[in-house]
Each structure stands twice: as C-alpha cells, then as structure tokens.
Design goal:
The complex is a heterodimer of chains A (181) and B (156). Chain A contains 7 helices and 7 strands, in the order αααβββαβαβαββα. With 181 residues, chain A is an alpha/beta fold. The longest helix of chain A has 17 residues. In chain A, 50% of the residues are buried. With 156 residues, chain B is mainly beta. Helices cover 6% and strands 47% of the residues of chain B. Chain B is built from 2 helices and 14 strands. In chain B, β7 and β8 form a beta hairpin. The radius of gyration of chain B is 17 Å and the shape is elongated. The chains are: A alpha/beta (181), B mainly beta (156). At the A-B interface, α1, α4, α6 and β7 of A face α1, β1 and β12 of B. β7 of chain A pairs antiparallel with β1 of chain B, so a sheet runs across the interface.
Chain lengths: 181, 156
C-alpha cells in the first residue's frame, strides 16, 4: 500500500457497497459513457445505493435522501477550489433546504481533516468520508480524470441531471437546481 | 486552458473536458548525474501547478537510499486553509543526493506529487517512477528517463 494513499485513506477507507452495488456502478458508468454528449438522464440508482460513514463514523445511505433534489459533491480538504465552492453550497442549503434541496459531500480525505474543516466553515450538510476509494466511485459516475471537485445532481425522480468536473458557479447552480425544486 | 472553462467549470453533460490526466500535466523524468546524485524533473504544463510540500521521493534500491531532496523555492500562493504555500509552474529540477550508490547499479526512483489546474480542479496524489542506472565513474551523467507506466500504484 502506497504511503500517500494510506495517509489519505486513513480511517475513512471504508466504502460499504455491496457486490451488487459495484456491478450496478459499472453498469452506470457504461450508461454514462453513452449519454455523455446527449442530455444526461442516467439512473442514479447505483449512486443512491452507496453507503459511507459520516464524519462521526455513522453509516449513511445516500438513498435516505431519495425524493429530494440531491447534489452529491466529491471534494477534499487538499483541494482549494473544492473548499471555495462549499461556502456557496452552504448558502444554497440554508436557502433552499426547506424546498427539498439536499447537498451531500463525499470527501476523498480522512475523517480528521474533514471534521476540522466542517467545523471551520460551519458545514450544514452531511460530509461522508470516502477516502481514495471515493475517487473510483466518482469515476464510475463519469469523472474519468478522477480530479476534484466533481458534482452530480440527482432529480427528485432519481435521475442524474447534471455532472460536472470543476467548480459549480452560483448562477449555474441556480439554473440547474431552480428547475428541479 | 480555454478561458470559457474557467468561467463556467467543465460541464460534462456537454463538451468533452479538456483537462490533462495528472501524469501528462506533471510529466516526471530523471537522470543519474553520478553515483552520489540523481536529478528529478517535473515539466508542468501551462495552466497547471504542483505543490512544493507534496513532492516526495523514494528510492527502491538497497543498500542505497535517498538523502534530503534539494527542492528549489517555489512561487508563493496564499491558501486560506493551509496558509502560505509554495507552488511550482513550468520546469522544476530537484537534486536528489543518494548514499551507497555504485556505478552500474540499477535503481527505481519513485516520485509522488500533487497539483491542480488553474481552471479550478485538483488531482489526488499521483505516483510516477523511473528506472535509472548509475553511470560509470568519469562517464558523465546518465540519460534522462521519462516516467512510466503512469499512475501506477495509486490504488494499490
């Protein structure tokens, strides 16, 4: 095991996905490829089936937010552009949470770093710990380069309506989420 | 990088992303100068940068071992979470003194790095490695060797 991976993975190195889930993810990736340049409306079932520990170590299944407009954001404390856009996400969560908007962060990082940063910015949505394994999950969601931040927006109906590598600007987020709420 | 990308991020539902994979954005190569010194080099493509304090080198060859890498100063960059950090752009060469090396010896130099693209995307730590042979005494430095295979070991 490589030292860097080990250091990053830490105690958060624990992705609880079943074999069926992994197969579904692989299938999802295949679908995503096909839909790459057309309107993305891939089924988010594979993503919703994922369960990861939060920053307190409690396992959280993504499907508990089924029926909400779900913004799943892959990030890390070592990624400056990720940290910047999260301040905006916090504002959106505060403004539109009541209308059914739910942000969920999946950190490619270790729990200690995540806890410290979450406290510092007063994070108001769940921060799940994925370790480096979360990179592979994001890759299955279409993040071919495995770079961060990477964000997937899921409609109330459980369809992936937007995937983005790089920061989501305020106006863009408003446009995407506004249509779904 | 296209200015449009920095304005809007990279919408994967539309155009193809134009970002390079990290092993191409941060190409690593190295050569053996003599039995006491290796030289590592990163060629960072325009629009990308590496974090100085995230560079780590390991030598896979016993009994030789790397001594302290001589990392040149980088450009200052303020990070609100990590404070002032140093970054590298363009070409950066790093002297890597070794102990216990002998002429003709084959060794593998492993370089870990982490960097970002100016469009607002960061890569996880990337591992690259090169196989070098220490030149014979008086023969001058060995040839420059490009890293391969890329990204090996990231998820080992």
């Amino acid at each position: 095991m490589l030292a860097v991976a080990k250091c990053l993975a830490g105690r958060g190195w624990r992705i609880a996905i079943t074999l069926a889930g992994i197969l579904a993810l692989a299938a999802g990736a295949y679908v995503a490829q096909g839909l790459w340049s057309s309107a993305p409306s891939a089924d988010a079932a594979a993503l919703l089936a994922v369960a990861l520990p939060d920053d307190e170590g409690r396992e959280q299944r993504l499907d508990q937010w089924r029926g909400k407009v779900l913004v799943v954001n892959f990030w890390a404390t070592w990624c400056a552009p990720c940290r910047e856009e999260m301040r905006e996400f916090i504002r959106f969560q505060r403004m539109d949470g009541v209308k059914g908007l739910q942000f969920v962060g999946i950190a490619v990082d270790q729990a200690d770093n995540v806890r410290q940063f979450a406290k510092e910015i007063d994070l108001n949505y769940p921060a799940l710990i994925g370790g480096l394994g979360a990179m592979q999950l994001s890759q299955a969601m279409g993040n071919e380069l495995m770079a961060l931040p990477f964000t997937v927006v899921v409609s109330r109906e459980g369809k992936i309506v937007h995937r983005q590598l790089g920061p989501l600007k305020e106006a863009q987020l408003e446009k995407i989420v506004g249509k779904l709420l | 990088m296209a200015p449009a990308a920095s304005a809007t991020g990279l919408d994967l539902s539309g155009a193809e992303p134009k970002l390079l994979p990290p092993e191409q954005a941060f190409r690593f190569s190295a050569r053996a100068l003599d039995s006491k010194t290796l030289e590592g080099r990163f060629d960072v493509v325009d629009g990308y940068y590496l974090y100085r304090d995230k560079l780590h080198f390991v030598l896979q060859a016993t009994p030789s071992a790397l001594e302290k890498a001589e990392l040149p100063s980088g450009q200052r960059k303020h990070d609100e979470f990590f404070g002032d950090v140093e970054i590298y752009r363009g070409a950066v060469t790093i002297k890597l003194p070794i102990a216990g090396g002998s002429p003709g010896q084959s060794l593998v130099l492993v370089a870990d790095s982490q960097g970002c693209a100016d469009v607002g995307v960061c890569y996880p730590p990337t591992r690259q490695q090169v196989r070098l042979t220490i030149p014979q005494a008086g023969a001058g430095s060995g040839p420059s060797v490009a890293a391969s295979p890329p990204r090996k070991g990231l998820f080992d």
